[in-house]
Design brief:
Elements (H helix, E strand, L loop, with lengths): L1 E4 L4 H10 L8 E5 L6 H5 L3 E4 L5 H7 L5 E4 L8 H14 L4 E7 L10 H14 L3 E6 L3 H5 L2 H7 L2 E3 L11 H12 L8 E4 L7 H12 L5 E3 L2 H10 L4 H15 L9 H6 L6 H8 L2
Parallel strand pairs: 1-2, 1-4, 2-3, 4-5, 5-6, 6-8, 7-9
Helix pairs in contact: 1-8, 3-4, 4-5, 9-13, 10-11
C-alpha cells in the first residue's frame, strides 16, 4: 500500500488523482488530519486514516501495513521539522520500506529561508536509516499566478525577483512526478531536482498577463522589505509575507532556476507552460 500524508491538501489530492490511474483505490491510503474532509476520497474506495503530524500515535496507526509513504511537507512554517520527525519516526516503527519527501529545489545549498527546515528534514531522514527518495520540488507556478488578478486590479505586478529567471511548474506536474516515483521500483537513495522546462522573469510574466488580458500591466520591482509590507497589507500574515519576499530575493540570485529538465523526463512530457496556467488563472 501507498500512503499519502496531507492528502486533503492541494498537492496531496493531485497525487492521489495521479495514483488512481494505475493503482487500485484500495491500495492507497489518504493520511489526513481530519478524515471528514476526505469523504470524497473514501467514496472512490481510497482508505482514509487519521494522521496528525503533531500526534505520533495517529501516524503509526495510519502507516500500519503500508509499504511506501509520501511525506508532503507541512504547511506550518517554523513547526515543520518536529512534525516531519514525527512522521519519519512513525514510518520507521511501522516498517515502511520507502519514504518519499517533498523537499525544495537544491535544499542542501539553497539560500532561501524556506529551505532551512527542508534541509534539516533531509538530514534527519538520512540519519534515521529509513530508505528514502527526495523530491526536491521547485516553485509552483500557482504561487505567482495567485497575484495575477490583483495585478490587473492595481495596474502593476509587484515583486522583488528583479530579472532572476524562475523555472516553476504546475502543482499537478509535481504531483504526477511523485506518483511516478511511488510506483517505480528501485527509488531508494535517489534525489530529484524538479523544476519547469521553461523559465521566465516576473517582467515576462507581467508581459504575458498583459497579452492575455489586453491591459498593460508592468512589472514593478520592489526592495525586499517594501514587498513584504505590501504582501502583509494584502492580508498575508507577517512571517509568511517575509518568507515570500525573501524567496523573491533568492529568485533574483538564481535560487528558483534550474535547467536539467528532470521533472519533464520523470513525467514523460513537457511541463505545463506558464501561458497555459495563466489562462486558467484568469478565468
Amino acid at each position: 500500500m501507498i500512503a499519502i500524508t496531507g492528502a486533503t491538501g492541494q498537492l496531496g489530492r493531485l497525487v492521489i488523482e495521479s495514483l488512481l490511474k494505475t493503482v487500485p483505490a484500495g491500495e492507497i491510503v489518504a493520511a489526513v488530519r481530519q478524515p471528514a474532509r476526505a469523504a470524497d476520497l473514501a467514496a472512490l474506495g481510497v482508505q482514509v486514516r487519521e494522521a496528525d503530524y503533531t500526534q505520533p500515535a495517529t501516524l503509526e496507526g495510519a502507516f500500519k501495513g503500508v509499504d511506501k509513504v509520501l511525506l508532503i511537507s507541512s504547511s506550518e512554517v517554523g513547526q515543520r521539522l518536529p512534525q516531519h520527525k514525527n512522521v519519519i519516526d512513525a514510518a520507521k516503527r511501522a516498517g515502511v520500506s520507502l519514504l518519499a519527501y517533498t523537499s525544495i529545489l537544491r535544499a542542501d545549498t539553497s539560500p532561501l529561508a524556506l529551505a532551512e527546515e527542508h534541509k534539516a528534514t533531509e538530514e534527519y531522514l538520512k540519519a534515521s536509516g529509513l530508505a528514502h527518495v527526495l523530491l526536491r520540488n521547485g516553485w509552483y507556478t500557482e504561487n505567482y499566478l495567485a497575484s495575477a488578478k490583483p495585478a490587473l486590479q492595481h495596474g502593476a505586478y509587484i515583486g522583488s525577483a528583479d530579472d532572476g529567471r524562475i523555472a516553476s511548474a504546475a502543482r499537478a506536474d509535481y504531483a504526477e512526478a511523485a506518483a511516478v516515483v511511488l510506483t517505480t521500483p528501485a527509488q531508494a537513495g535517489k534525489v530529484y531536482e524538479l523544476a519547469g522546462d521553461e523559465a521566465y522573469t516576473l517582467a515576462e510574466l507581467a508581459a504575458e498577463l498583459s497579452r492575455q488580458s489586453g491591459k498593460t500591466v508592468p512589472y514593478v520591482n520592489l526592495p525586499e522589505a517594501e514587498y513584504a509590507k505590501a504582501l502583509e497589507g494584502a492580508g498575508l500574515p507577517g512571517p509568511f509575507a517575509a518568507i515570500l519576499a525573501n524567496s523573491d530575493i533568492g529568485a533574483s540570485n538564481g535560487a528558483l532556476f534550474d535547467d536539467n529538465h528532470q521533472l519533464g523526463k520523470l513525467i514523460g512530457r513537457p511541463t505545463t507552460p506558464l501561458a497555459t496556467l495563466l489562462k486558467v488563472a484568469l478565468q
